[in-house]
Amino acid sequence: MKINVKVNGTAHSHDVEPRTLLVHYLRDTLRLTGTHVGCDTSGCGACTIHLDGKAVKSCTLLAVQADGCEVTTIEGLATNGNLHPLQEGFHQEHGLQCGFCTPGMIMTAADLLKHNPKPSEAEIRHALEGNICRCTGYHNIVKSIQYASEKM
Amino acid sequence: MTATKYIGKSIKRVEDKRFITGKANYTDDIVLPGMTYGAFVRSPYANAKVKKVDISKAKVMPGVIAIYTGADVAAVNGVPCGWQVNFKNGATMKEPKHPLLVADRTKHVGDPVAFVIAESRAEAKDAAEAVTVDFEKLSCVTDPAEAVKPGAPLVHDDVPNNICFDWELGNPKSEVDAAMSKASHVTTLEFTNQRLVPNAMEPRSYIGSYDPINDKYTLYTSTQNPHLIRLLMCAFVLGLPEHKVRVVGPDVGGGFGSKIYHYTEEALVTWCSNKIGRPIKWTAERTESFLLDAHGRDHRTKAEMGFDKDGKIVALRVKTHANLGAYLSTFASCVPTYLHGTLLQGLYTTPKINVDVTGVFTHTNAVDAYRGAGRPEATYILERLLDLGALEMGKDPAELRQMNFIPPFDGVKQPGYQTQVALQYDSGNYEGVLKKGLEAFNYKDFRKRQKEAAKSGKILGVGISTYIEACGIAPSAVVGSLGARAGLYEVGQVRVQPTGKVSVYTGSHSHGQGHETTFSQLVADRLGIAMEDVEIIHGDSESVAFGMGTYGSRSLAVGGSAIVKSIDKIIEKGKKIAAHKLEASADDIDFADGRFTIKGTSKSLGFGDIALTAYVPHVYPKDLEPGLDFSSFYDPANFTYPFGCHIAEVEIDTETGKVTLRRFVAVDDVGTVINPMIVEGQIHGGVAQGVGQALFEGTIYDEEGNLTNPSFMDYCMPRADDLPMFETGSQVTPCPHNPIGAKGAGEAGCIGSTPAVVNAVIDALWSAGKKVKDIHMPLTPERVWSALQ
Question: What ipTM goes with this model?
Answer without folding.
Answer: 0.99
